Each structure stands twice: as C-alpha cells, then as structure tokens.
Amino acid sequence: MSIPHVLSGTTRLAGIIGWPVAHSRSPRLHGYWLARHGIDGAYVPLPVRPEHFATAVRSLRDLGFRGCNVTIPHKEAAFAVCDRLEPSAERAGAVNTLVFEGDGTIVGINTDGLGFVAGLAQNVPDFALTEGPALLLGAGGGARAVAAALRDGGCPRVVLANRTRSRAEALAAQLGDGVAVAEWGDRSALGEASLLVNCTSLGMKDQPPLDVALDALAPRAVVADLVYVPRETALLCDAAARGHRTMGGLPMLLHQARVGFSQWFGITPEVDAALIDFVAGDIPLR
Ligand SMILES: NC(=O)c1ccc[n+]([C@@H]2O[C@H](COP(=O)([O-])OP(=O)(O)OC[C@H]3O[C@@H](n4cnc5c(N)ncnc54)[C@H](OP(=O)(O)O)[C@@H]3O)[C@@H](O)[C@H]2O)c1
User: Fold this and answer.
1) pTM of the predicted protein model
2) What residue owns the CA closest to ligand 1's atom 31?
3) What is the spatial distance between Cα 197 and Cα 117, in angstroms, rounded to a whole number?
4) Are 14 and 60 in contact (CB under 8 A)?
C-alpha cells in the first residue's frame, strides 16, 4: 500500500483565490513542489466571488494561512487590500501574490513580470533584454506587468499596441520613461522590435487567434506569448516556422510561482524539465 499524503496539526497552508478558479494550474504546480520536497503543506483552490474578496483574504489570514495567489478577476482588488506593497506590485498596479506576516500584515507582490523575464532567460538564453525595443500587443494586466519588468530589466524601449489605443496611452503614461504607443497593426513598430509579445487573450482556447503578419519582423527577433492554454498558439507556430526563437506562456506561469512558494513554504523550488512535463501534461499542445 502506498502511503497517502497526510496533513499534520502544523501543516502550512496557502492557495489561489479566483472566480472561477477551477481552470487554474497552480494547485497542480504547487502540489508537485510540495510532494517533491516532502513539505508538510497544502495549496488549495479557493473560489471566491468578487464581493467577498476582501473578507475572504482577511479570513484566510486569521485562519493561519501563510498567504495565497490571486488570479482573475481579483488582482486589482488584492492591490487595495494590502497593508504593504512591494515595488513590483506598485509598478504593476496589481497583486498576484499575498504574504501574511506573523503580525497579521498583508504584503502584496506582483511576480508576473519577473516570471516572464526569468522564463525568457531560461528558454531563450542567447537573447538579452538590452538588444532592442520590445513590442507588446495588449494593454491589460499582463502587458503592464511585463512592460514594467522589461524596462526594469534593461530593455531600452517598450512599445505598446492595443486594440483600444487609449488604454495603451494610459498605461504608457503610468509606466513613464521609455514606454511608447504604436497603432494596432503598425508594421514599422514590428520591424524595429527585438522581442514581440502577445499580451492579449487572443489565441487562448475558445478565443480567435491573434492575426498578425510576421513578415515585417527581423529574423533575429524573439516571439513570446502569454497565453499558455494551448501551449503552442498559432502565433508561436507561425513564428517558429519562420525561424524565430519562441516562448509560450507556461514558463512565465511556472517562474512567477517560485516567489510565493518560497515565502509560504520556506524553500525556493526549481523550474526543471520534470516540473514542466508534469504541468504541461495537463494542458493541450494546440
Ligand atoms: N502566462 C502567465 O503566467 C500569464 C499571466 C498573466 C496573464 N496571462 C495571459 O495573458 C492574457 C491577457 O491577460 P490579462 O490579465 O492582461 O487580461 P486583460 O487585463 O483582460 O487584458 C486583455 C487584453 O486583450 C486585449 N483583447 C481582448 N480581446 C481582443 C480582441 N478581440 N482583439 C484585440 N485585442 C483584444 C484587450 O484589448 P482592449 O483593451 O482593447 O480590450 C487587452 O489588451 C490572457 O491570455 C492571460 O491568460 C498569462
């Protein structure tokens, strides 16, 4: 008989709050690391309606949770519930990781941008952020976190192109120096880019594909997609067929999770081939 996973009276608790949350791969990911490191801990899905968010967070803290991840639609509400914000959260204007300190202080972190940059370093190691401008398609929460992290990581210029131009303009104004706006479909911005990132929800399962003509892109440019369901979007397939180096959204998801895990469970876990296979096994390829 194999020994089941047994919790003790001192199990460390964390989880992910979302509405809905059933689609989240985070319990699988953190569960893998907990088992791998033999940690007396649990990471659970927490479906919480928007109107109950702040009460739920304070209740989790009072119940002895170490903290939690926060996903759609709560990332802005999480920003508001914090007693203290790390610079990453201030810069991203949203929080995806909450840490409850021993005295009850709620600390907010945003690890999305860091996750993207760390994923890029691991998956496209011969690419440097300093190489040239990045063109980001989209101006939502994901674009904001990635744009801030790219600038902070040395990218000389980030250009935002969004369907709703005013949203890109507002974001560029908030992020300040080195962030510009281009028209949606602007081919010259594409031609100048060293890195193209899809930060829209286009290409996601049940969404139309992102329709962008890659012929204007320099051959050395890297193409990345934040979408991770499916793992290989039409954009990535097209880019790979043209010889571009590519990265899907899964590395970002895996790398952003390391910070929370380390804060709650006391070990900084690795993103290695075994973890990638385990999490990817639950996500359709195309
Ligand atoms: N890999 C990861 O760890 C990770 C982390 C965060 C997000 N993501 C993914 O990133 C994507 C965006 O997430 P988000 O949180 O930034 O969402 P969001 O804040 O809702 O922003 C959505 C973006 O998509 C654009 N968009 C939606 N439908 C469009 C269409 N038909 N044509 C053109 N643009 C369209 C929106 O443009 P408008 O402003 O014009 O509406 C907006 O820029 C999602 O697929 C999400 O799963 C992945």
Assistant:
1) 0.96
2) 202
3) 12
4) no
